[in-house]
Design brief:
Length: about 100
């Protein structure tokens, strides 16, 4: 179920890179369009996996979790996250 009809990548959760640091792209299997790759690092942080310490747990490298991730992307879709509204200053703290 999507939140407010939005895909995986809903703000502030952003599992698509805005642009990959190594130039990698993902080909959307539905449309054939080039999209940014899935941000597995962010997904790892959300689920509590340290894939650098134990690469066998990488969600896009394990067959079982990769299948789940790709099924979720196919069912829900993706989007690049980020702040969709301007950041304002909290008048009480003076901080964004």
């Amino acid at each position: 179920m999507t939140r407010k009809g939005r895909g995986i990548g809903c703000r502030p959760w952003r599992p698509l890179w805005t642009s990959a640091h190594n130039g990698t792209v993902r080909i959307d299997p539905e449309t054939g369009a080039e999209t940014p790759p899935i941000n597995a690092h962010l997904i790892h942080m959300h689920v509590g996996i340290d894939a650098q310490a134990d690469q066998a747990n990488h969600v896009m490298l394990r067959k079982s979790t990769k299948r789940l991730m790709l099924e979720a992307v196919a069912a829900i879709g993706t989007e690049v996250g980020g702040m969709g509204t301007p950041i304002s200053i909290d008048p009480d703290t003076g901080k964004p």
